[in-house]
């Protein structure tokens, strides 16, 4: 599949690969950003604004800003042709102002160069070592949280409720068990609730473009977005502090030959790094251990939670689809769902795929890419060190890939026999693309499937008497639905 797409891209002339080459024409785009066309930077539906600009200027265009150009890539073939086909060219991160808002943060994916490559290499190896041969045990942990989630919803007694907190705590407790070897205590849950950690992305607009604005426009941006920026900073620092406290406690009882959990594996990986490697890569325990665990806790809790919030909303909005899911679980399951049931539930898989396509959790990356050398994309010259934004939303709405792309239709992922279409599995990328694709994608998909299957197996979801939530989204680091309430009726 990957090779076929690569051939199609090369044939269409999307692949660049030149350093300077014979093509020096810069991408087209709107006039230099002024007060009249500042909306892409201030609008919370930034991905929609950028999609409209792509319709006008093409899948490669530039925004001319006082601080320098920003190139925007849209559409499946163009994005693939840049992030995958041009290996290494778009691997770096742009250095934007927003990164300075949370100084305690040591996320792997915010870094660039040899530091990032070595950190990611260590992180990937730890993830592989930790989960290898342990997936059945990990599933057992997730089953425990699914049972607790079902119990929590059952206790609502058919009364309307906002599902956000119970979904977040289920994923949080699972991730806590994965990284620190224990479920969340009430104290843990309260700490996360008080710091707003599970809500970090909700109120924070994608503001990484801030670093390209002039000082005057930054002040204007801060004026209008001060509360959300402060919330973002406090949430990230709260999460980092929580992780640091647990790592310190773990370090005191750490035994090199006894690997209890992911934290121990990362502590071991840090101890294996030579003094020469530490000096060469400027990579230390705070990055390897704290940074990696902060990323796992943030993404491992947030992404599945936000996806499941969309899941429940779509179930309520489309009762016919919910009924079809009920028919499938009734036909396949005799007891609570397990991961081994997934292959026998193509409609459930198609439904989850369509949720992730129709409501992409990260329509725009929180931090932009940066070119490591001069290159060409679609015949346009992009200079070294140019910030590049990828509009992942445009891939999910690409009319050359998706028929009627704005409709919500799980059936698009099924063939005439009701089996999953293999040709569409690599046409949308909810977990990113290229060298920076999410390391925890497999774990995230596991969380989404198993928790969704439990919810559908145990409940019928409907709107409360006063009406259901609508599909308007809050756009920030992630795209999530506005708060809503549902009614969960137990199924016998």
UniProtKB/TrEMBL annotation:
<dbReference type="GO" id="GO:0042448">
    <property type="term" value="P:progesterone metabolic process"/>
</dbReference>
<protein>
    <submittedName>
        <fullName>Cytochrome P450</fullName>
    </submittedName>
</protein>
<keyword id="KW-0256">Endoplasmic reticulum</keyword>
<dbReference type="InterPro" id="IPR017972">
    <property type="entry name" value="Cyt_P450_CS"/>
</dbReference>
<keyword id="KW-0503">Monooxygenase</keyword>
<dbReference type="GO" id="GO:0042446">
    <property type="term" value="P:hormone biosynthetic process"/>
</dbReference>
<feature type="binding site" description="axial binding residue">
    <location>
        <position position="438"/>
    </location>
    <ligand>
        <name>heme</name>
    </ligand>
</feature>
<dbReference type="Pfam" id="PF00067">
    <property type="entry name" value="p450"/>
</dbReference>
<dbReference type="GO" id="GO:0004508">
    <property type="term" value="F:steroid 17-alpha-monooxygenase activity"/>
</dbReference>
<dbReference type="InterPro" id="IPR002401">
    <property type="entry name" value="Cyt_P450_E_grp-I"/>
</dbReference>
<keyword id="KW-0408">Iron</keyword>
<dbReference type="GO" id="GO:0005506">
    <property type="term" value="F:iron ion binding"/>
</dbReference>
<keyword id="KW-0349">Heme</keyword>
<dbReference type="InterPro" id="IPR036396">
    <property type="entry name" value="Cyt_P450_sf"/>
</dbReference>
<keyword id="KW-0472">Membrane</keyword>
<keyword id="KW-0492">Microsome</keyword>
<dbReference type="GO" id="GO:0020037">
    <property type="term" value="F:heme binding"/>
</dbReference>
<keyword id="KW-0479">Metal-binding</keyword>
<dbReference type="InterPro" id="IPR001128">
    <property type="entry name" value="Cyt_P450"/>
</dbReference>
<keyword id="KW-0560">Oxidoreductase</keyword>
<comment type="similarity">
    <text>Belongs to the cytochrome P450 family.</text>
</comment>
């Amino acid at each position: 599949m990957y090779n076929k797409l690569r051939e199609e891209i090369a044939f269409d002339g999307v692949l660049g690969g030149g350093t300077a080459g014979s093509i020096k024409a810069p991408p087209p785009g709107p006039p230099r950003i002024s007060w009249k066309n500042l909306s892409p930077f201030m609008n919370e539906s930034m991905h929609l604004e950028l999609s409209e600009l792509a319709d006008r200027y093409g899948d490669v265009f530039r925004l001319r800003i006082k601080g320098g150009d920003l190139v925007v890539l849209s559409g499946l073939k163009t994005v693939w042709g840049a992030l995958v086909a041009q290996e290494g060219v778009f691997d770096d991160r742009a250095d934007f102002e927003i990164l300075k808002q949370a100084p305690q943060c040591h996320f792997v994916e915010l870094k660039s160069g040899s530091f990032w490559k070595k950190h990611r290499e260590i992180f990937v190896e730890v993830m592989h070592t930790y989960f290898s041969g342990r997936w059945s045990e990990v599933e057992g942990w997730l089953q425990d949280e699914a049972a607790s989630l079902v119990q929590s919803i059952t206790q609502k007694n058919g009364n309307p409720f906002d599902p956000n907190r119970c979904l977040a705590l289920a994923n949080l407790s699972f991730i806590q068990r994965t990284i620190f070897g224990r479920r969340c205590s009430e104290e843990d849950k309260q700490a996360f609730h008080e710091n707003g950690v599970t809500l970090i992305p909700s109120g924070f607009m994608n503001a990484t473009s801030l670093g390209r604005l002039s000082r005057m426009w930054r002040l204007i941006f801060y004026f209008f977005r001060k509360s959300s920026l402060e919330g973002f900073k406090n949430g990230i620092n709260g999460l980092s502090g929580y992780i640091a406290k647990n790592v310190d406690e773990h370090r005191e009882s750490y035994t090199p030959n006894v690997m209890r959990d992911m934290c121990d594996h990362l502590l071991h990986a840090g101890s294996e790094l030579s003094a020469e490697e530490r000096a060469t890569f400027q990579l230390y325990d705070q990055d390897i251990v704290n940074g990696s665990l902060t990323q796992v806790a943030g993404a491992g809790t947030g992404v599945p939670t936000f996806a499941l919030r969309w899941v429940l909303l779509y179930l309520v909005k489309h009762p016919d689809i919910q009924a079809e899911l009920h028919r499938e679980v009734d036909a396949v399951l005799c007891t609570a769902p397990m991961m081994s049931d997934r292959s026998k539930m193509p409609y459930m898989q198609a439904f989850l795929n369509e949720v992730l396509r129709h409501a992409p959790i990260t329509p725009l990356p929180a931090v932009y890419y940066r070119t490591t050398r001069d290159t060409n994309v679609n015949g346009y010259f992009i200079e070294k060190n140019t910030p590049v934004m990828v509009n992942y939303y445009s891939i999910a709405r690409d009319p050359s890939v998706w028929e009627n792309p704005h409709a919500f239709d799980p059936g698009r992922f099924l063939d005439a026999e009701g089996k999953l279409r293999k040709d569409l599995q690599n046409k949308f990328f909810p977990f990113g693309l290229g060298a920076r694709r999410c390391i925890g994608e497999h774990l995230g998909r596991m969380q989404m499937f198993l928790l969704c299957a439990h919810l559908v197996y145990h409940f019928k979801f409907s709107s409360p008497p006063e009406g259901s939530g609508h599909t308007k989204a809050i756009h920030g680091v992630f795209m999530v639905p506005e708060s809503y309430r549902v009614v969960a009726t137990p199924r016998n």
